[in-house]
Amino acid sequence: MTGALETVGLGRRYRTTWGLRDCSLTVPEGSITGLVGPNGAGKSTLLRLAAGISRPTTGTVSIFGQEVRPNFTAHLTRIGYFDQLRPLYAGFRVDEMLGLGRRLNPSWDDVSARQWLDDLGISVKDKISRLSLGQQAEVALTVCMGKRPDLLLLDEPVASLDPLARRQLLSTLMGTVAERGTTVLLSSHIVSELEPVCDYLIILSASHVQITGSIEWMLANHRVLVGPRDGESPSGVDVISSAATGRQVTLLVRGMASDLGPDWQDLQPGLDEVVLAYLAQPPSGRSTSPVDRLPEPGEPS
Amino acid sequence: MIWLAWRRHRLALLVVGCTLVALAVWMIVDCHSFEVARHTYGRSGCIGTLLFCNGVSHGWFSFQNQAGYLDVLLFLVPCVLGIVLGAPLVAGELQAHTNRLAWTQSISRSRWLVIKWLVVGLSVVALVALMQVVVQWWSGHVLVNFLETSSLPGTDRISPRLFGITGIVPLAYALFAFALAAALGAILRRTVWAVVGTIVGYTAAAILMVFNIRPYRLFSPVFVPQVTSPNGNSVAFLPQSVLSQPAWNLGFGFRLAPGVVSPYSANEIAQRCQDRNYNYASYLRCLASHHVEMGSFYQSASRYWPLQWSEAGIYLGAALVLFGLTVWAVRRWRA
Amino acid sequence: MIQFRLDLKSGVPAYRQLVDQVRQALRLGLLRPGDQLPTVRDVVKQIAINPNTVHRAYRDLEQQGLTEGRPGSGTFITRALARVPEQQKTLQRQLEKWMRSAREAGLGDEAISALVAEAMRSSEKEGPR
Predict the structure, then answer these.
(1) Domain-wise residue ranges, chain A
(2) Stretch B255-276: mean pLDDT
């Protein structure tokens, strides 16, 4: 199946450093995929490459099977892009921003856009510069969603928003996904924000993809093993991270430990523990290990 | 997109428009004051400076100063307009990152830029054109009376002081400044550098045009040789009035006599004669022996409109090249 | 209409929490056969979670025979869960007796909670009947 977004060997270099490197992944259609990683990991770079604002140094990126090239407009009608900086024209009014969306996008749905803003309590006559940060984010998201895209690319949509604004923005987003089955790729550096909202997760660190998979698969296939420091290491598992204190060692592993001694504990990790373990790993050449592939529906994980 | 380009830049265009209206009003007032002053201070037939007027009171000269300020301002208008509207055209969007908003709507970058450029650029030209109507009238009534070069009517229109602010060239200057500022903004990605770069570039182009291209390269200037005394020992300088028609005095120079072919240029020969002859008479003889004439170059005033069109064409061509450069720079922006 | 809430820290998967909340409401009589469950869209607008989670919860409920989806109308409750108040009173008395024994044995609040949690977990593995 072609994913909503597919990258092959994607990389982007800025003078001497790589913003993103060897990135090969597929975002399944209809999913809500979270892109998680620390600041500077390459999340924004990936999203900008997907939106066509940035041009790749190596590799390709395709949207619904069509390669993205910055000067072709074919993919633009199918995506909505929400930038981290939430650029809006400060001197405009809200209805003028909607007018921008209407005039520049053939598939603009003005009725829905106005309805969303109405539900959020934003008057269309307000000036953008007078709105709060959360309201500006909501207007930016409305402009993004109003063109009824099939793929939404959202760069830190809820960063630095107060809890109420965050809830409102995510509710609006989830509402539109429920209606249309839009594919969403959103980034954050806070795992707890993504967990209730996402089906799939892409973990990025140091410009490389560490692992991708459904959240369910990640929780089912990773365990925390706590045992004696100088005991025998468990076999049949990949150790992702280990921390030793005193007489005890704590391992986060992928896979099922086949024969665990009696002095070992086998615990269920939370999602943020799993993510943290992968983020602590040094970057390595990836995209060949089969577990990095998102499991097909019905496939045993 | 046309709506967006207009809406985005409407404030700048409005400010610029109001400034031009203010200038136009100043010129109209100035013209009226001139008429009043002429009756009060001047005498019939008295035009120009002290050279031609005796017993004129102080009021006349302060009036002259005002005209001078306005004159200088009008020279700056096309360049400033172009910079104000052109520098932020692309650079402003890149700095505010609003290009990330615009380029992810369903419109290509090329279309975005082309429409923006055309809407703003043509507005600039239209505004300057409207103001030119007033400028033309004002300079014809007022400014000509204050220029010191000559009292012959029509002469001074072709002189640099009037040429650059009359006719159609200011439109081409404004479009060029706009195009240069926009291109520099797209390439250098900062409004400030675009402003600085345009000031430097525009000035360099203006100097090149006024001192080299306009006088010598577009149409051959007229040469009026100095009269040499029969014994070849001295020359008489010609008074201006010997010229049978109004003209722009380009200055003193040398040329080879008509029909003479030489591997060296007239200036080279004159330089060598100067180096080898310390006596003025022998210097003149040296020149004569090599068939080099000494005299003054002029551009006839009848060349005014051909020069206007040619110069406007050059600036317009440069603006179009810069337009292409801007489109290219935007298309290859890599973020 | 039932108002869902999500406890992210509980370690229980989100769809399970929704299913449990519907079952709880049925037991307490807050939902009755014929009542309509909120649409997926309304739920995600309330509690900003993935629509697929809600779909899954509703599918689970349908598989358990508690609901049915009517195309064009929504999802409706089809049967009630036994409320058995009498059994509850007996259970409550048994619980109070056990609690007294535990206190007499010297168990503090923490130890009691741990025992209760363990017992709940092992009974959960057997699944609802």
Answers:
(1) 5-206, 215-292
(2) 84
Residue of A nearest to B109 (CA): A71
What residue segments make up the domains of chain B, in order of their start? 2-219+303-331, 222-302
Residue of A nearest to C17 (CA): A196
Contact partners for chain B, using 3 or more CB pairs closer than 8 A, are: A
Residues C71 and C108 occupy one common structural domain: no
Residue C26: CATH number of its domain: 1.10.10.10
Tell me, letter by letter, the H, E, C secondary structure of chain A. CCCCEEEEEEEEEECCEEEEEEEEEEECCCCEEEEECCCCCCHHHHHHHHHCCCCCCEEEEEECCEECCCCCCHHHHHEEEECCCCCCCCCCEHHHHHHHHHHHCCCCCHHHHHHHHHHCCCCCCCEHHHCCHHHHHHHHHHHHHCCCCCEEEECCCCCCCCHHHHHHHHHHHHHHHHHHCCEEEEEECCHHHHCCCCCEEEEEECCEEEEEEEHHHHHHHEEEEEEECCCCCCCCCEEEEEEEECCEEEEEEECCCCCCCCCCEEECCCHHHHHHHHHCCCCCCCCCCHHHCCCCCCCCC
- For residues A192 and A276, the answer to whether their CB atoms sit within 8 Å is no
Size of interface A-B (CB pairs under 8 A): 76
Q: CA of B185 to nearest chain A CA: how many angstroms apart?
A: 18
Cα B1–Cα B4–Cα B7 angle in degrees, nearest 5: 150
**Is C12's Cβ below 8 Å from some Cβ in A?**
no
Structure tokens at B335: 């973020």
Nearest to C51 among A172, A177, A216 (CB): A177
Domain carrying residue C94: 85-126
- Are B159 and B49 in contact, with CB atoms under 8 Å apart? no
Both C30 and C66 in one domain: the answer is: yes
Please judge whether A91 and B11 are an interchain contact, meaning their C-beta atoms are less than 8 angstroms apart.
Answer: yes
Q: How many CB atoms lie within 10 A of CB B316?
A: 17
Would the pTM count as exceeding 0.95? Answer: no
Chain A within 8 Å of C41 (Cβ-Cβ)?
yes
Q: Could you tell me if C72 and C89 lie in one domain?
A: no
Nearest CA in chain C to A267: C11
Looking at the fold, whether C61 and C31 belong to one and the same domain comes out as yes
A-contacting chains (≥3 CB pairs under 8 Å): B, C
**For residue C83, what pLDDT band results from cuts at 50, 70 and 90?**
low
- Same domain membership, residue C90 and residue C56: no
pLDDT less than 70: residues of chain A: 1-2, 282-301
The answer on C56 and C38 residing in a single domain is: yes
Q: In C, residues 42-71, which contact A (CB 8 Å cutoff)?
A: 44-54
Would you call B106 and A147 a contact, using CB atoms and an 8 Å cutoff? yes
Cβ(A120)–Cβ(A138) below 8 Å? yes
Task: Tell me if A73 and B96 make a contact (CB, 8 A cut-off).
Answer: no
Tell me the pLDDT band of B14, cut-offs 50, 70 and 90. very high
For tokens 């009534």, what's the residue?
B141
Q: Specify the DSSP element, H or E, that contains C11.
A: none
Q: Which chain A residue has the Cα nearest residue C11?
A: A270
Q: Are A25 and A49 in contact (CB under 8 A)?
A: no
Instruction: Convert the pLDDT of each residue in A8-59 to its tens digit.
Output: 999 998 888 888 889 999 999 989 999 998 888 889 999 999 998 888 999 9
Does residue B156 surpass a pLDDT of 50? yes
The pLDDT mean for chain A works out to 85
Q: What is the CATH number of domain A5-206?
A: 3.40.50.300
